[in-house]
From TrEMBL:
Top-level taxon: Bacteria
Organism the protein comes from: Acetobacter vaccinii
Protein name: Inositol monophosphatase
Cofactor: Mg(2+)
Gene Ontology MF, one: inositol monophosphate 1-phosphatase activity
Keyword flag Chloroplast: no
A single BP term in Gene Ontology: signal transduction
Keywords: Hydrolase, Magnesium, Metal-binding
Length: 265
């Protein structure tokens, strides 16, 4: 394994520190358990005060550190352009966060043109931090991770994300296909952490029919470095809008892709 580019390695370390502070800000603002304390952007698509505060915090810190880098946020859109571009989801899993639950994270990915090169996912309520740098491994709390070795679909655990943008028959068709394989279905409400779970072997696959770049930018380097297989999300429209993603461990990927009719790269 070659030494990482000093510029990219420095950016990853800086991003980890900034996301750590942003995650602590989010923890300090987290609602107590109970009904959702948030506004609705659309059906079951929540927005909290924290989303804006965390995104603004990260945007300001990254601009100060790397003024020539681009920046794109879920809430603010693209605010700066550059060949290197940071992509942030300030709170991924907002529906969980808004109810005082633990399954949510702050997610910050780095794109080099159209290529994902680094990512940090910090889930402070779980005490977990994922990091990855292209060509130099994927890590959970500093320890290397890799995708699961499960090859038998009847022993597999597959998560599928839900979105109001997806017609019910389409969602149910994919879910039926998962269960026909004999796999155990799951839905946890946080796409970035579900993809990180595939990278770490906690899940054998994750599917979401419509998901955005800010949800997956930090997870894509994790998946690549951990040996998972991924559908061509970026090629299929993920750079500019919502697109489908399938990520799976390499031993079950072809069976799952065929069952749910989502091609892999």
């Amino acid at each position: 394994m070659t030494s990482p580019s000093p510029a990219l390695a420095y950016r990853l370390e800086a991003a980890r520190a900034v996301v750590h502070d942003a995650a602590r800000l989010a923890m300090s603002m987290r609602p107590p358990p109970g009904g959702p304390q948030a506004a609705l952007k659309s059906a079951q698509d929540w927005l909290t005060e924290t989303d804006g505060a965390v995104e603004a915090f990260i945007a300001q810190r990254m601009q100060a550190l790397f003024p020539d880098d681009g920046f794109m946020g879920e809430e603010g859109g693209t605010t700066r352009s550059g060949s290197l571009r940071w992509v942030v989801d300030p709170i991924d899993g907002t529906s969980n966060y808004a109810r005082g639950r633990c399954r949510w994270c702050v997610s910050l990915g780095l794109m080099d043109g159209d290529e994902p090169v680094a990512g940090v996912i910090d889930a402070p309520a779980l005490g977990e931090v994922y990091t990855a740098l292209r060509g130099h491994g994927a890590f959970l709390n500093g320890r290397p991770i890799q995708a699961s070795s499960v090859a038998d679909p009847t022993r597999a655990m597959i998560e599928m994300g839900w979105s109001g943008r997806v017609p019910k028959p389409v969602f149910m068709d994919k879910m039926d296909a998962i269960m026909e394989l004999g796999a155990m279905p799951r839905s946890g409400g946080c796409g970035a952490l579900a993809l990180a779970d595939v990278a770490s072997g906690r899940l054998d696959g994750y599917i979401e029919i419509v998901i955005n770049l800010w949800d997956v930018a930090a997870a894509l380097p994790l998946l690549m470095e951990a040996g998972a297989r991924v559908s061509p999300f970026l090629r299929d429209g993920g750079l500019t809008g919502g697109a489908t993603i399938l990520a799976a461990n390499p031993h079950i990927a072809d069976q799952l892709a065929q069952a749910v009719a989502i091609p892999l790269e």
